[in-house]
Write a structure and sequence with these properties.
Layout: E1 3-7, E2 10-13, E3 18-25, E4 28-39, E5 46-51, E6 57-59, E7 67-72, E8 77-82, E9 91-101, E10 105-109, E11 113-118
Parallel strand pairs: 2-11
Antiparallel strand pairs: 1-3, 3-8, 4-5, 4-9, 5-6, 7-8, 9-10, 9-11
Length: 119
């Protein structure tokens, strides 16, 4: 069974930093694009950042210059380094991965990790 498990969320003051991790497991052959999305209370889920298997990245305008996405292909893990956090960055952060595994293929999502930024 393929799983994506996020970690690293928590409560931080504005201006602080957090590093999120998301590890995929479950007889995986390969992972193409990986990404981070977030959902604030009462709002739709939105893209934060994506990264290809070759390392090309894409960011939402709201996080450019503050967040950095990276990945470790050998560990099937994607990271999100978040600096200069703002209260508007508060939300549940989800990772996803477009993967190929023994029993399945396609985009899979993690369960989410909560990030709360206090003023």
């Amino acid at each position: 069974q393929v799983q994506l498990v996020e970690s690293g969320g928590g409560l931080v003051q504005a201006g602080g930093s957090l590093r999120l991790s998301c590890k995929a497991s479950g007889s995986i052959f390969s992972i193409n694009d990986m990404g981070w999305y977030r959902q604030a209370p009462g709002k739709q889920r939105e893209l934060v950042a994506t990264i290809t298997s070759g390392g090309s990245t894409n960011y939402a305008d709201s996080v450019k210059g503050r967040f950095t996405i990276s990945r470790d292909n050998a560990k099937f893990t994607v990271y999100l380094q978040m600096n200069s956090l703002k209260p508007e960055d508060t939300g549940v952060y989800y990772c996803n991965a477009d993967l190929e595994a023994v029993v399945t293929r396609g985009v899979r999502w993690g369960q989410g990790t909560l990030v709360t930024v206090s003023p």
